[in-house]
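okkk here we go again. third time trying to get the flavin-adenine dinucleotide bound version out, last two times i messed up the smiles copy paste (missing a bracket lol). double checked this time i swear
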Amino acid sequence: MTFRLNEDQLLIQETARDVAQEKIAPLAQGYDERSEFPWQSVKYLQELGFMAMMVDEDWGGSGLDTLSYSLAMEEVSKACASTGVTMSVNNSLYAYPVETFGTNDQKEKFLRPVISEKLGAFALSEPDAGSDPASMKTYAKKEGDEWVLNGSKMWITNGGAASYYVVFAVTDKEKGHHGISAFIVEKGDPGFEIGPPEKKLGIRASSTTPLSFDNCRIPIDRLLGSEGEGFKIAMKTLDGGRIGIASQALGIGKAALESAIKYSKERVAFGRQIGKFQGIQWMIANAAVELDAARELIWRAAMLKDAGKRYVKEAAMAKLYASEVAVRAADMCVQVHGGAGYSNDFPAQRYWRDSKITAIYEGTSEILRLVIGREVLGKF
Ligand SMILES: Cc1cc2nc3c(=O)[nH]c(=O)nc-3n(C[C@H](O)[C@H](O)[C@H](O)COP(=O)(O)OP(=O)(O)OC[C@H]3O[C@@H](n4cnc5c(N)ncnc54)[C@H](O)[C@@H]3O)c2cc1C
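finally!!
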């Protein structure tokens, strides 16, 4: 497998880097401090077609490959991890399942608008069902030509900003995970409420809310895929989503590394720039090695997906490793900055706060180790 980028991918990388550094990065700290949704940054990405990069051109998307998406995610997240997750959810967790499992009518109504105007969300987790989504309680019942949803969802990214939501609910309690179905719910549907934003450690500018369904009535044709296919849709969607989150982690880690390098050349202690001390050099060297290795894992997973091959294990490995590396790189960045790393005057604290979530959402590190373990051991 070769890891050379083609002309198109290089152009995407350069375009993403330019918009991220020139337009998104200057806004990141302010959005974070105000916990304000980064609409302006999202608009820049919508203008470039980056909010639905892999959607077919027939539906108004950019028709790009997963590797291009990963490159753009890395650059955007390096500038602003909150914008990164917003972009990732719209691309991988909303547009992907609607394009892959939706009918043409659903795509016309619910996919086209999220290319350059509106946002989508993915609602799987519940207050008592995160790592084990098959134990979800949200229930959907068919009544005449409507589905009636009852229950609640938790931690939904883009919750307060989205217009459309892919929502998972039990339709047959007897069938375990084969009794879960997926639906498209629209903001304003009767009985559908969006809760207040969560106050978070990091990615503070992203919107994370609970959702509730109180006899929420939606038309029968809002079922996404077939009845009972919801769990499969969720798992397939998350496999691709993990490449996006791994790329987000890589972007945060790279930002932390570059920030540490810059500071280590400026800060003087004992009469020398601290970057001249071996103790600092080794910390920086470790992060540089780990981030390069993470990038290889991410690109491998993306290329397998683009080649139409199975990539469950590789996406899990990429997300597991990249997220843990990002956490270590961000921690190193704070340490290299000393007291300054603890202050809002430098972005090191933001990288540190933002990095942690990448090891939690779309499969915690523990769950990913289970996925990888299952794949590596096989049936025995
Ligand atoms: C900011 C944010 C945004 C999010 N966005 C979304 C979103 O858009 N859509 C969505 O559906 N969800 C979203 N989530 C939810 C996220 O995916 C879950 O938080 C995550 O899957 C973990 O679930 P949990 O929080 O219920 O933790 P739990 O499942 O309660 O896990 C608690 C701990 O137990 C460990 N654990 C659980 N089971 C096992 C096991 N079998 N073996 C070993 N260890 C185990 C976990 O790894 C973890 O360390 C988001 C969460 C956050 C914080």
